[in-house]
Amino acid sequence: MNRNESLYSLAHAGVVDLAIVGGGATGLGVALDAALRGYSVALLESHDFAGGTSSRSTKLLHGGVRYLAQGNVALVREALHERQSILAIAPHLAAPLSFVMPAYAWWKLPFYTIGLKLYDLLAGRAGLGATEWLSRRETAQALPGVQVRGLHGGVRYWDAQFDDARLALAIAHTARAAGANVLNHVKVANLQALEGQSDGAKWALDWQNQRGVEQGVLRAKCVVNAAGVWVDDVLAKVKGHVPTRRIVTPSQGVHLVVDRRFLAGKSALLVPKTTDGRVLFAVPWLGSLILGTTDTVREDAPREPLPLEQEVDFILREAAHVLADAPQRADVRSVWVGLRPLVSPSSQKATRSISREHTIVVSDQGLVTVTGGKWTTYRAMATDVMAQIESARLLPSKPVVQTDEHQLVGGGQPSGSDLTEAPGIHLFGDRAPVVSACVGSDKPLALGLTEAMVRYAVRSEFALTVEDVLARRWRALFLDARVALAIAPRVAEIITEETGQDADLLSFQKLCQQYVLNDRRV
């Protein structure tokens, strides 16, 4: 089904069982779960799939070592199980990754080891490798480029990493294959509760195609608000809704991308407690090195948040403590910011103390709002949402489908992807032959991207704009903003050839400037 057919289906849907607002990890996960159970589903995303938080994570599938330190054993155990599920259903987009904690005080070695052995114990059969105590020499070998002055040794443990935006696309593909109508660049303008409808409709959603002139009204028996940090904005669109307090407190996380020469190995570096108590990661990903992240509360939730100067300084300063060759501002190839949808507390707290667990709220009118959580537990969140919907009798109960065993599109043939290395055709999994069959497979652009991949993104991956392609179908913007800017004109030409429509090149060129650090002060 192409976009025009999807829009036609949306306009003539009659009454769907479930309408979902928001196309990030949570909304897409709900769409897949519901469609596999046999419900009719329509998902509407105002921008692009994973265009917000879900493409701006630290790229880690993890149980949460720091949550274990906080005593949240249940959350860690659930996340470790979910980590294993994602590795199984999307092996082309997720892979195990070893982490090393360097110790610059001798007493930290047994302290780290005891905690991480508990992490292994909680993982059980889902464990990816045993925790090891490393000597000074072994630590330096595992982390080429680590600061060896004062180093006593280290501890190695295992988690996993993934390509967040492409995993979201895989979920969207799989949901569509299961019968869900998933649409990006379609905005929900208003929501209205209905009463006394003979066809069972409880909600009416006014929608508008952001890349065309189409608009209409979608009628649904149940609505899930899965808009992430923007769930409160969706609630404000409900006619008659009077908000009492905001559900979400946005927390800003900044990431800097530099060359792998600063940490040349295949292991990630973790500093569990920096000078101000935060965590620092140095993660090899798609041929580059991600440094981050921060945790800064903010009152607003812009679509493209900017890093604060003190956040950039914090990351570079802390990296200089553990890397022999300290990255400078000029070494940063891309800087990007994600907003985490943390569940608001009843009183003001630092965001490190606000709950990372998800929250589901069912209004008196039957609107289901889900927020919080993290990428690793997207599938469990979806299962919980459907359980709440059925227990509240918003929809009739149907047999549960084990989504932790349902292969995502592209994952049928395990490719053994190494996500620490440069991106390539392997990221398409078993769809690689279809991609290579597109015109332009012999015409590379940059960072592993070919013209054929751009055509495939438009034809089969819901891409409509240059940003869709270079930010999420391929991670060029996140890896090197200047390179993304250089190849954007050719990508725009290909999109226009495929669609006959403007690819919004100027907007992307402007966006690239926000991802280039330079000497900008914010």
Give your account of this protein's structure.
The chain is globular. α2 (25-37) links the parallel β1 (15-21) and β2. The protein contains 16 helices and 20 strands. It is an alpha+beta fold and 522 residues long. The protein has helices spanning 3-11, 25-37, 65-69, 73-89, 108-123, 136-142, 164-177, 231-236, 309-322, 378-391, 432-436, 451-460, 466-473, 476-479, 481-499, 505-515, and strands at 15-21, 41-44, 60-61, 94-103, 132-134, 153-162, 181-183, 186-193, 203-209, 215-225, 248-259, 268-271, 280-285, 288-292, 296-297, 334-343, 359-362, 367-371, 444-446, 449-450.
Distinctive features:
10-stranded mixed β-sheet; 522 residues; 8-stranded mixed β-sheet; D-Amino Acid Oxidase, Chain A, domain 2; FAD/NAD(P)-binding domain; alpha+beta
Brief synopsis:
With 522 residues, the chain is of the alpha+beta class. It has helices at residues 3-11, 25-37, 65-69, 73-89, 108-123, 136-142, 164-177, 231-236, 309-322, 378-391, 432-436, 451-460, 466-473, 476-479, 481-499, 505-515, and strands at 15-21, 41-44, 60-61, 94-103, 132-134, 153-162, 181-183, 186-193, 203-209, 215-225, 248-259, 268-271, 280-285, 288-292, 296-297, 334-343, 359-362, 367-371, 444-446, 449-450. The strands form three sheets. Strands 3, 4, 5, 6, 11, 12, 13, 14, 15 and 16 form a ten-stranded mixed β-sheet that branches.
